[in-house]
Amino acid sequence: MIDLGIGQTENCLFSSEEVKCSALKVINHSNNEAFQYAPEEGLYRLRVEIAKWLTNKTKMEVLYKDILITNGASHALELILKMMVPKGGTIIIEDPTYFFALEIFKDWDLNIITVGLTDGGIDVGEIEKICKKRKIDLVYTIPFNHNPTGITANKKTINKLKMLADKFDFYVASDEVYRFVGDPQPQSMYTGHEQRIFSIGSFSKILGPGFRLGWINASDQNISDLVKCGVLISGGGVSPLMSLILSNMLETGKVDSICKKLNYFYDERRERLIDVFSKNLPIHVKFYPPTGGFFAWLEIDSEISIDKIRENLIEKSVDIINGSQFSLNKNFSNCLRLGFTFYPPSQLEYACKEICLAIKKVNI
């Protein structure tokens, strides 16, 4: 079964030898430092290396004191909700959005308002209307290579969202895990001076989810507020052993070489998907050609049954995921999110062609 609901990296693409080399250096030369607790903010060495790496990537200075190490993007979002949003607070999220973020929000006492997406990103006009009527505490957005739609926010949208955050006194949790996957993306939402912005990054998408390491880039005052979390005070910074390994990988350039390799394969698969859909999709299907990330989004005529499409596909050993799973209110039942990074180009091409045929068959 070729399951295009999968949104991750194919196992054979991971760079185990590079990781092993850095791990051995850490174990052999750390004087057992690797087995100690780390400061609440995370290992100093890793914060410095991430700041250098981001500075090199963006050509804008990133300060280590504005970096907090997290156990991935989900942990970062959980930490921001816990420390920056009051109980019973109100947040705005995109519709559609990352479906596991919806599970995180369910764990908290929150009022959730959804707003749609435009071709330029989150609908900031709708956010402004909402803010004029009620107090908003946080906006959660995925501005770069959006999951699930693949949309990237334009500069106008990003600047307007920052302006609204200052004007109406709400925080922005900017989930930027796909920023370095695919075509080069604009500067992070946080650029070194914003007081209401938290930019969330993760090595899960650029190295592998097993690293379980990410970061929050925000003002040093906001970082200071986050590290007051009881879990960090008790347990210290996350994963000091893997943090030292990753520090070595950043110092030696291994991270960049791995990113370059993975992007080569991701680009090849993305281009194959775009080529097949551009040539074979029926004209009534709206296709958002991705510029990066892991996903493509299809919007199909609402009169066509997605369930029947899926039945036809399963007969051909292909599976898909319905767009309604990415909506708090179960909208987008006429849409499909398709992951293109897990399968090699030949299997991906086969699956995409079968999707086109299934849509045409059900449309007859």
From TrEMBL:
Domain Aminotransferase class I/classII large: 2-355
SUPFAM superfamilies, per database record: PLP-dependent transferases
InterPro entries, sorted: Aminotransferase_I/II_large, PyrdxlP-dep_Trfase, PyrdxlP-dep_Trfase_major, PyrdxlP-dep_Trfase_small
Top-level lineage group: Bacteria
Keyword Transferase: yes
Keywords: Aminotransferase, Transferase
GO function terms (MF aspect): transaminase activity
Keyword flag Cell inner membrane: no
PANTHER family: AMINOTRANSFERASE, LD15494P
Protein name: PLP-dependent aminotransferase family protein
Classification lineage: Bacteria, Pseudomonadati, Pseudomonadota, Gammaproteobacteria, Oceanospirillales
